[in-house]
Structure formats: structure tokens, C-alpha cells
Amino acid sequence: MSALERAEIQRLREGSPWTGLWAVVAKEMADHLTSARMRILELLILLTAGGTVYVAMQQIRASIGSDRFIYLKLFTLSQDPLPSLIGFLGFLVPLIAIALGFDAVNGEFNRKTLSRILAQPIYRDALLSGKFLAGLFTLALVFSAIWLLIFGMGLIGLGVAPNSEEVGRLLWFLLATIFYGGIWLVLAQMFSVVFRQPATAALAAIATWLFFTVFWNILASLLAQSLRPIQYGFLQEALAQAELELALTRISPNTLYAEIAIALLNPTVRSLGFVLPFQLEGAILGTPLPLHQSVLLIWPHLTGLIAATILLFALAYVLFQRQEIRA
Amino acid sequence: MSEVIVTKDLTKKYGDFVAVDHLNLIVHKGEVFGLLGPNGAGKTTTILMILGLTEPTSGSIRVLGFDPTRQPLTVKAHVGYLPDQVGFYDELTAYENLIYIAKLNGLPREEADRRIESALQKVNLVEMRDKAVSTFSRGMRQRLGVAEILIKQPQIIIMDEPTQGLDPEGAREFLEIIRTLRAEGITILLSSHLLHQVQAVCDRVGLFHRGKMMLVGTVDELGRKVLGKAFRIYVETPNTTPEIIEALKQVPEAVNVRALNTTTIEVEATSDIRHEVAKTLITAGGQLRGLSMEAQSLDEIYAQYFQEVEHVRA
Amino acid sequence: MKRHGFTLFLAFVSVLITALALVIPANAQDITPNSNSSNPILYTTYPSVVVGPGETISVDVHVRVASQPEVVRLEVSEVPEGWTATIRGGGKTVQAVYVQAESEANLELRLDQPKAIKAGTYRVVVTGRTATASAQLPIEITIKEKQPSRLSFDVDLPVLRGSPTTTFRYSVTLKNEGDDEITVNLSANAPRGFQVNFRYGGQDVTSLPLGAKESKSITVEAQPLVDITAGSYPITITAQGDDVQASLDLTAEVTGQPSLSITTPDGRLSGQVYTGRETSLKLVVQNTGSASAQGVKLSASAPSGWTVTFDPEVLDEIATNAQSEVTLKIKPADNAIAGDYMLTLRATPSQGASKSVDFRVTVLTSTLWGITGVVLIAIAVGVVMLAVIRFGRR
User: How many CB atoms sit inside 10 A of residue B39's CB?
Assistant: First the structure.
């Protein structure tokens, strides 16, 4: 039977492919939120958030300024040797996301639960989608809780309520953080479809993360140097090379997330690319951008992260759908 | 509506490999049908196709009048499936495992609770309700698997190698459960490569080999068909003559008579005809030194049958 | 109380002794007239003196004797009532003087007028006696009538011309013609739209003291309000003494001047523009000056790559207290970065001061990119939907 015929049959099938989706989501979320694995990670991120925010608050109190955006400072201020909260989030988010997803499908295989679940009146579409949504919702829940905790700490420690601009920026940042997690979640889930051993899937996901964290920037630099060499030493050549390198590094979700953090949490940041001196002529430096402009600045990044998450999910979905149930 | 599962020329190919080859299977309402065959004979593939979990390459299936390829959700809502390896979420309790299944079946909470209680009662696991499944023995898991099936109150239950890996006591208990289910009027299709256990509960049996159904019938029919030459009577006589052999051939129900050597004659019969054989031998002037009989069970025939086939294949 | 009584008693005693001392020699002189001695001669250079009331009068008195030295006793024998007369010599009050023969002694007669005195001629007689003779020196003192107080103003340039922004400064001399020192209050009566100050010695004053016959130079500063219309404005300044006053009329001739301002209909000097897109903003050019502005040219300084134009570029005339609407068209550079920029807008009339204003422009990036992102996500969702159609429901 050709793939086309199969597609034809599937098209003629009755019922929604999402039957039972919410049962899967509810069960998986309950699993995530009660599993020892997640408890450990939640504790870890709670301690980091508490620690970095406390340190940031000390610094804010030490320099009593009329800063409009002290709540943003809670995320960005750091004090040696402790990195800032966004520094920690950069690797804690992928860690949590991978922990949520690396045994999604192969775990079901190994526990021999898959065929039993699929014998229920649901399509297998619901299973992977449900696991993906449950992971995403768990990430949203955990990070929302962390955000609220930070707001709470700020209210107690600083005695100032966040202004609407700060709340808006932090909500957008929360969305970005959730989808930054989402991309690693869906990658881990994809590996859990591909690899039968959860350990292999986890390792593959972490290796991918390491690749983007450590090696991709080096590789991007080398690629840019070889693809756009500086032959005559013109400014345009150097600019072209630097722009290519920037574009290449932006393939990495880490870069995207870091840039989102910079633009959203530092309202005075006007551009994430290269700025030529003449572009700053007449500019009033140090004035914050309005929120919607900061959001526009990171819009390609944010939508890119979301789209990449969805596309990776599509890939994982296709891989899972094509698999034979019998192991 | 007496035929609940009907397949017509059902074929499934994995590339060049033919897993199921033009299978025509009919399972009647309320019967226990045993699908017998060695591992790799295509039993599991057939079951998956009946459930709509795998698409047939050609041919058609009707389960309760529904087409599993078109209406898999309806089919799966009415058919319970116990896979060959029943796995549960070990960290969850029996109840939590079952409520998940109930939710997947779209049952409202109260109805689900009611059905779970009654199902656990039927499989004798009420006291394990809130224990984590990780503490369960293999037999208990198997029974929990049955409980899970009962939640959806199926019309048909399909079990894939249900007694595999169970100790004799566990297997006996399990077969008892199958009898109970049958008594409730549920149609059961079970696959096994171990005939002797299935023999006890199956109304009809299909012998499956290399994707083909070799023999189908009730245990009696099958026995009769196979047992047509299943009784072997060995007559020891010092003087084997062609007259004696001719005389023995005249005995009704004697199928085949041949001299194995000068002192032993083998009589293949469809029933125990030792008395007639002895009488005929003596009437024919033979001396009876010994009379023995091999009453071959279905099991042996089955094993022997597939052994032969293996040889042929090798 | 007791002690005061005692002091009073002592003073009475001393006066009694002094009176006796004066009486005793006089008696002696009378007893021995012209015995062995020459007549003393008393004279003064100016026997008739005119003074003002209250002034202390000093008259020189010279004493001579003829042949032999003599002690000449001196006495003010006649003095108007209330007057105090003392004869002084060598810095001391004296009653007698020793005069060498053929020489003279110089003395001073000091007279103190009583507080309340009327104008008129008074007689004072000084008598000198030797043992044998005596001589009299009459002196006539005329107390003249007191001068009445009078104030006068003097100004060189009573009419000044200037624009509404200039300060009109008049140099005025105020003189006290009288003999009394007076404190003068200064006030001005100016038309609406003027603020008048008096300055003396670098300070704002409202009153100042003037001694007798003294004159002081005061600067009168008249500051018109900017929106004053052209015209001639009279300013009257008044100096008011105790019961004398003087006033002076000054004139400020205000010439007209346009005064431009640039603003927007809602008064906010900021706007939002999108990169690479021309945005029109409404501007209002106002003339709050006292003359109409002619040929107002509008210009702007903007970052390079930007296009800033005005429609119209030149406003032919803006009447006083009138305003004209101008459309400001801003097109930031295509590669302008979002954020705040400062433009300087300038309105230059053909005559008069130009006016510039800082205009804050917030450059926004087009939301077109936002739609691209949404399309990207929509495509991703579409891929998932295709995958579901193609591979779904298994």
C-alpha cells in the first residue's frame, strides 16, 4: 500500500485525532508535577532564583536609584561569583525541558504500556500531542510560579509594586522562557521517539544542547570566515562577515533566548544587530524603548522559537506516527 | 450478528515479508477462539489489524460490523485488548492506572469509579486498589490487565499470549477468569503458542502458521480431524503375516496398518480400538505378546506439526 | 532717691560758688577804677553775624592793653534769654586773660541758640575789665528765616524708543532744594503692560533719604511685557517727601517685534514615526510678538538619512497673536533604529529673531515584521495540520 493510499484511508477515518488528548495531558502533568525528577529540578531552580534575586535585591538597595525598572534588574543583576538569574535560566530551562521529555515515548515502550494505551479508543496522535502539551503546560506552570515568587520577593524586599511596563516585559519574557523550554522539550521528545533507550535520548538531547551552547558559536565564526572572507579589508566585507556570523549564531535557540532576555529586560537596548555610528546620529541614548517596540525587536526571535518548537513537534509527530507499535 | 469478527483475504506485508497471508477468519459471538501458532506466525499482526492499530495491505475486516481501518475508535471502544506483555505505570497505584484508562475511554468519573470497583472485584484485586503497581506480581499484573479491559465493558476481548510467563497456578487462575468472562457472554479471541492451556477453554481453535490458517475447528472437530490418525496401537506378535495385516485393516476405524518390523505392527486408528485389534489378531491366528497404545494429544500433534514444518522450512 | 537729692544739692552749691566768684572781682574792679593801668580794648573782626536758626555761632574776640601788662577779666554782660555764651581761649573756657603790653590776646565767643528761636536780630555784649578800667564789645547776631523744603526732578532724555524686549532706562536726577533732610518715596504710574523699578547704587529702591540740598541720580527702569503692542506709553514718576512732592513725565515708545513659537495643536513636542515611512505631523507656528512676522522660513536639523520637510516651507505672514498650521513631514532613514531621536525645528522670520525648538521623535519599527512572525507561526501550525492529515489517526 502506498503512502498515498494510507493517507486516503486515514482521511476517511472517523473521529477526531485528538480524542482523549486531555486525559493524556492531565495524566502526564500529574506525573510531571509529582515525579521525584521534577521535584529535584524545581528545588534547584527555586534555590537559584531565590539566591540570585536576593543578591540582586541587595545591590538594588545599596544603590538607591530612581530606576524605573527595578524588577527587571532582579533578573539581570549579578554579583561575582553568582551569575544573574537569566544566566542560570539559560541552562536550567533546557535541563528541565529535557528532563520532561527524554523518556516520553520510549518510556512507554519500555514499560509495555504503549500498546495497552493505544488499544483504548484514541488515536496515537493524542498521545504524543498530549505529552507535548503536558510538558509545555508544566513548564508554563513551573516558570509562572517562579515569576510570581520573584514578584513576591520584590514586593517584600523592595517595597515597591512593579509598574505595568515591568509586568508586561516580564510576561513576554515568561512566554519566551516557556517556548525556549518548549524547543528543548520537543527535541527531547523527538529523541525519545527515535531512540529506544531513554538514556540514549537524554544524552542525545544534552549533546545537542551542548553543541549549541559551546560549539555552535565557534562553528558560526569559522563558517562566516570561510564563506565571507575579508579579502581587501573593506568595511563592507568585515560587516558582511559579522552579519553572517550573527545570522548563523541565531540558529541556536540559546542565542535567541539570550537576545530576547537582553532586549526585554534592558529597555534601553534599541537594536540587537550591528549599529553603525550614523544610525545613532540625533538619537537620545539611554531612553527606554516602549514595550511594544522592544517586543517588535525580539519578535522574530520569539516567533522563531515558537515556530521552531511547533515544527520540531511536527517532525517528532511524523516520526512517531510512522513507527510500528509492535516493538 | 453471530459473526463478530470476520476477515476476508486479510493480508499484511512488511516489504517482501508476508506476515499474514489471505486470512479468512470468523469468530462467532460468545465463543472463545484460540489462535494457535508459534511465535512469528502472524498472530499479533492479525490482532493489531483487528484492532485497527495496523492497516492491512489488502483484504477486509469487520469487527461487530465495523471496519477497524475506518472506524478504529468505535472498534477499540467495544474490543478489549490484553497485549502479550502487559505493562503498567509502576509508580502509580492500580486505581490510578485504571482511572487513566477510564478517562481515555471518555467515562465520567462516577461511572468510572463504579466500573473500576466491579472490575477489581472480578479479578480479585480489591485489596490492592491503592497499592503501587511496582509491588504487583506478574499474575496480579495480568489480572489487573483484565480489570482494565473490563472497565470498558467490551463485547470482545482479545488476548495475546495471556498465560505466557505465568506459573501453573497463575495460569490456572487466569483460565478460570476467562471461563467466567465467557459465561458472561463476552466473545474472546486469544492467541497462544501453548495449546494445552488454551485447549481447556477454547471452543474453537485455529492453527496458524506463516501467516496462514492451517486448520480451524472446534476442539472436538479439530481433535477428530487430527485424531483420525492420532491413536497408534502397537501390536507385538512373533509371526507377522500379510493375512494378519489384512485382517487388521478390516477393523472399522483402523486407518492405517503397517508392519514396523517382523514382530511389531502399527495400527493407526481414530479411536481406542485395542479390544477389536486384539480380537481380530487372535481370530486371524496371531499370537498376542503385547498391546500398547499412544494416545497423542492435540498438543503433541500441534508441536509435531510445526516441527515438521520447521524442518521443511529449514 | 536719696542719692539723687544729694547730687542735686552738690550742683546747687557749685553754681552758688561760681556766682560768688563772678561777683567778687566785679566788685573789686568797681572799687579801683583806672588806678595805674591802661584801658583794655576789645574788638572783633565781624561784629555783625548772620546765621541760620539752630546754628552754633563762633565769634572771634581780641583783647588789647596799652602800656603795661594787665589781667583782663572777661564777661558776657548781655545775652538774649535762653542763649548760652562761653568764652574760650586755648581750648578752655576762660574768665580772664593775661595780655602783654602792646600785644593782644585772641579768644572765641561761642553762642548756642535755644531750640525754638524766631528770626530776628539779637545783641550780645562782652565786657572786659582790668583793675582800673573796663571796655564793652557789642555784637549783633541776626537769625535769618529758614529755607522751605523743595524737591525737583531733572532728566536729560525723557523719551526713549525700544522694542518690547528692551528695558527702557531713564537717568533721572532727584534734588532736595530744601534745608532739611527728607526721606523720599518713589512711585510710578505706568500703563498696563509695564513694570517700573527705581534703581540707585545698583539696587532696587522704593524710598531713599536726601540730605539738604543733596541730589541723587536714579535710574528708572521700565520693562514692558513681551506681548505689548507698539505705541507710545506715558510713564509718570513721583517722588513724595514729608509734605513735598515732585513728578516727572517720561515716555516709552515701544516699537513692534514679532515673537515666534513652534508648538503642536495639543502642545506636545513629540511624535511617533515609523522607519522608512513618511509621517505627517501638525505643527502650529504662533506669533506672540507685537508686530506681524513676515516671510517665516521653516527648517529642521535631522540625522543624516532622514527627510524632514514642511508644508508650506515659508509662511508669508503671521499677524500678531495669530498662528499658522504647518505640516511637518518626517521620514526617518530606512535603517533607523527604533528609539527616541531629537530634531531641532527652526522658524526664521525675514526680520527678527528666529525661534528653534527641540522636537522629540520616537521611531517605531513597522509592525509589518510582526505579521511576518505570525505568518511564520501560522506556517508551522499548517505543517502540523498537514502532518496530521497525512499521518494522523493511527
Answer: 10
